[in-house]
Every structure is written in structure tokens, then in C-alpha cells.
TrEMBL record:
One Gene Ontology cellular component: extracellular space
Lineage, uppermost ranks: Eukaryota, Metazoa, Ecdysozoa, Arthropoda, Hexapoda
Name of the molecule in the record: arginine kinase
Enzyme Commission code(s) on record: 2.7.3.3
Keyword entries, A-Z: ATP-binding, Kinase, Nucleotide-binding, Transferase
Length: 148
């Protein structure tokens, strides 16, 4: 039950067997296995220290890739089950409270489109914002480097 595209691709077959999530004690680093992608690697924390979040992520990805090489295509980038994640596969997001933009949804969408950003609710795709807090992330992943 859920996403019809994932169901059509048999991504939900044998649910929930063979899936799981691993995390550190502080829950600032998580690896989600076989949900939508084979591995979803997440680094997160409260506050504004994006450098620390990024360093933790890069260190972990490099350690994992030494043991399990990721599939990469010269033209498409990193290969994943979900085509929206092709390319860098990096979705960097912040939860941010923007009450004035939340009151003017058209303006929020205009600003997001101008800067190639995706706006989601705080509980992920197809959810509404709660208390004016949105999940804002990069929309583009193809044809860019991780730093772009």
C-alpha cells in the first residue's frame, strides 16, 4: 500500500521482509535498507551546523563504498532504484520555519522554482507543512556534481 509507482515496479514485494534501519545512539546517522533505494544514508541533527552533518555523511559514504562499491554510469551518475535520485543521488534538505512564506503559498513556490528547490511538508513527500515549517531541498540531481 502506498506509492502506486513503487508498487508497479514491485518495490513493495515481500514487504516488510528484508528491510530495516540502522542508526547511531544519537540518531544523527541512519542507514535505511531497501525502502525505496537499496541504501538511503542520512546524516541529520538539530541546529545550524551543516558542516558537521556533511562531514559525517561523507565519512560514512566513503567507508561504505570501500566495502560495497556503488553502481555508477558515466552518463547517468549513481544508479538507484528510484529514477528521481539518479545523478548525484544527493538530496540535501533543511527543515525551516518560514511563516510569512507559508501564508503565501504562491510566493513560496515562486521562490522555490527560481532557485531549483523542492518544497515538502515536514513528514516527507505529499505531506503538508506543520506550523509553517517546511522541508526545503535541492530539486536537481542530474548533470551536477555533489558540490553544485
Amino acid at each position: 500500500e502506498g506509492d502506486r509507482f513503487l508498487q508497479a515496479a514491485n518495490a513493495c514485494r515481500f514487504w516488510p521482509s528484508g528491510r530495516g534501519i540502522y542508526h547511531n545512539e544519537n540518531k544523527t546517522f541512519l542507514v535505511w535498507c531497501n525502502e525505496e533505494d537499496h541504501l538511503r544514508i542520512i546524516s541529520m541533527q538539530q541546529g545550524g551546523d551543516l558542516g558537521e552533518v556533511y562531514r559525517r555523511l561523507v565519512t560514512a559514504v566513503n567507508d561504505i563504498e570501500k566495502r560495497i562499491p556503488f553502481s555508477h554510469h558515466d552518463r547517468l551518475g549513481f544508479l538507484t532504484f528510484c529514477p528521481t535520485n539518479l545523478g548525484t543521488t544527493v538530496r540535501a534538505s533543511v527543515h525551516i520555519k518560514v511563516p510569512k512564506l507559508a501564508a503565501n503559498k504562491a510566493k513560496l513556490e515562486e521562490v522555490a522554482a527560481k532557485y531549483n528547490l523542492q518544497v515538502r511538508g515536514t513528514r516527507g513527500e505529499h505531506t503538508e507543512a506543520e506550523g509553517g515549517i517546511y522541508d526545503i531541498s535541492n530539486k536537481r540531481r542530474m548533470g551536477l556534481t555533489e558540490f553544485e
